[in-house]
Each structure stands twice: as C-alpha cells, then as structure tokens.
Design brief:
six-stranded antiparallel beta sheet; 17% helix; single chain; alpha+beta; 192 residues
C-alpha cells in the first residue's frame, strides 16, 4: 500500500513539474510576442526638393517614354541623373537619343533651366514631380533594407531602381542615409 501511495505521489509530482515547466514556457513565449511588429502602412510619396534629391545623387532614372518629360519627346526613351546635389540648384543630366543635355534644377515643381534650348525651350516646369518609395509593409525597425524607388515626373514614372533605406519606429524614412519623409506605421497583420 505504501508503495502504491509513493507511486501516486511521484506521479502527481511529475505531472505538477511538467505543468510548471509548461506554464513557464508559455509565459516566456508570451512575453516575446506581446510587442506587435510595426510596419509602414503605405508607400511614401516624397516631393523632389533640395533635401530629398541628395538621396539619389548619381542614380540614373530611365523613362521609356520621354513624353512624361515633355510632349516633344513622346515615344523617345530618356535617362536622367542628378549630381551636385549639395548645391541649392543641383545639376540634372538628361540623355535623349544619344544627346546629353545639362540643366540646373530648382524646386516647387521640378524646374529645369537649360543653358541652350532643350527641344525649343530654355526652362521646363514639370508637375507633379515626386519620388515614390516602396515602403508599404516594410518593418519600422530602423534596419537597412532594399527599397524600390520610382521617379514620377509629369504623367509618367521611371523604371524602378533599388536603393538601401530604413524605416524608423517613428515612421521617418531614410534612403541612402538621407531622411526623405515620414510614413504612418501600423501593426502588421496576417500570418507568415
């Protein structure tokens, strides 16, 4: 009888120990998963201005149809790159049909001022003029990741390029180490 009681007590102690270990394990798991993962709710539309353009120094944007830049360029591909971005009026280098044109750039819209006429004009004012950064769904944890970037110019957009960027917990977005704007962050939804 005593042996039976001893086995019963050991059995209860074993079950109790397993239950305690299970509770501890669940408690530990719960504490690790209580903080929701924050992500960017949307993509970022950053205005092209003298601060933001520093993030794309030397990057080449390709447009399959120059008509986005100017009606006279419809059907012609063009490329554009910004340099000298630390200046108040960065340089825009535009290549159309193998010919290179250079302009200074000012902002409000994108205002390109050429030293010689560019398809009949010295000054081109293009609106809208913005960078669309693919931030939607990226964790807002300050970690560097690759982000897609489109240059929206007039009625068209460039071919996407990829640049290193990060979204901080407060929603501020950096691209190539330059803060370019802020997005709303939200709790991540869905499963893996």
């Amino acid at each position: 009888m005593r042996e039976r009681a001893s086995k019963s007590l050991r059995s209860r102690l074993f079950v109790g120990a397993v239950a305690c270990v299970g509770v501890l394990a669940l408690t530990q798991c719960k504490s690790d998963s209580t903080a929701p993962v924050k992500v960017a709710a949307t993509d970022l539309a950053a205005p092209v201005n003298s601060s933001v353009v520093k993030a794309v120094e030397g990057q080449t944007f390709s447009f399959s149809d120059g008509g986005a830049f100017a009606p006279a360029l419809a059907g012609q591909p063009l490329t554009m790159a910004f340099t000298n971005t630390s200046s108040a009026a960065p340089t825009a280098t535009i290549v159309v049909g193998g010919v290179t044109y250079v302009a200074t750039t000012t902002f409000g819209s994108c205002i390109f001022t050429f030293s010689t006429a560019f398809f009949g004009q010295l000054v081109w004012v293009i609106n809208p003029c913005s960078f669309i950064v693919g931030t939607a769904g990226i964790p807002a944890n300050g970690q560097t990741t690759n982000m897609t970037l489109l240059f929206r110019l007039g009625s068209g957009s460039s071919v996407p390029i990829t640049l290193p960027g990060a979204i901080n917990p407060d929603g501020s977005v950096t691209l190539n180490g330059v803060e370019i704007g802020t997005v709303t962050v939200t709790n991540a939804t869905g499963g893996a």
